[in-house]
Amino acid sequence: MQDPITELAGTLIVSCQPVVGGPLDRVEIVVGFALAALAGGARGLRIEGAANVAAVRAATSAPIIGLIKRDLDATSVRITPLLEDVEMLAAAGADIIAFDATNRKRPNTASELCSAVHGAGKLGMADIAKFEEAKEASAFGADLIGTTLSGYTGGPEPTAPDLELVQRCAQLAKPVISEGRIRTPNQAAAAIELGAHAVVVGSAITRPEHITGWFAEAIERTGISYAATGSTR
């Protein structure tokens, strides 16, 4: 396999992360999502959990961005917060290891996590929320910058992708992965046009619960109830 960064240039990466505890939250289904995504034209995968990474690795040689999510009492950082997480993902076969690189209280600094990733012989993807964090990640040696956490570190969560952040991060001469709230093909294309190296799409492809909710909520917002009026339309 060629260098993962080169292989992912100008491509779609699909995040195969089922709703935790949902009916699709099983290893074999994650593998199925991954293979279906690759069959549809994706060139890379973003997979959560060491067991899922190992199972997907056994099924494909496509580049895998691995991460582990944890809910810790002392921090709001969830994406690969611990050095042991890096070790587990490297052993499971991830090519790229994603870690939270936001400026928040954490058990290990983002720089320490990145060093551990490199020590394991893997590439590091710094998931950031702000341009200043992207600059810091670039300075400490992250191989890729992900806009993954924009809108998720405080305040109301937006519904549109942060394409302005993508464009700004593209100025740093590091591959930028546009991720977060990309729900349409046009949004994915726009991210590439603004300088993204690749685009990650998750919920819009692999979370039927979320997709169903978007449609149901749109219908509910019309305020029209045919059942209440007895219409058969």
Compute the CA-based radius of gyration.
18 Å
CATH superfamily: Aldolase class I
Can you summarize the main beta sheet?
8 strands, parallel, barrel
Q: What name does CATH use for the topology?
A: TIM Barrel
List the helices and strands and how they pair.
Blueprint: H1 4-7, E1 11-15, H2 27-39, E2 44-48, H3 50-59, E3 64-67, H4 83-92, E4 96-100, H5 110-119, E5 123-127, H6 131-140, E6 144-146, H7 163-169, E7 176-179, H8 185-193, E8 198-201, H9 203-206, H10 208-221, H11 226-229
Parallel strand pairs: 1-2, 1-8, 2-3, 3-4, 4-5, 5-6, 6-7, 7-8
Helix pairs in contact: 2-3, 3-4, 4-5
Structural features, described:
The protein is globular and about 65 Å long. Helix 2 (27-39) crosses helix 3, helix 3 runs parallel beside helix 4 and helix 4 (83-92) packs parallel to helix 5 (110-119). It is an alpha/beta fold and 233 residues long. The chain contains eleven helices and eight strands. The protein has an eight-stranded parallel β-barrel with strand order 1-2-3-4-5-6-7-8, surrounded by seven helices. It starts with a helix and ends with a helix.
Short structural summary:
The protein is α/β, with parallel strands linked by helices and 233 residues long. The protein has helices spanning 4-7, 27-39, 50-59, 83-92, 110-119, 131-140, 163-169, 185-193, 203-206, 208-221, 226-229, and strands at residues 11-15, 44-48, 64-67, 96-100, 123-127, 144-146, 176-179, 198-201.
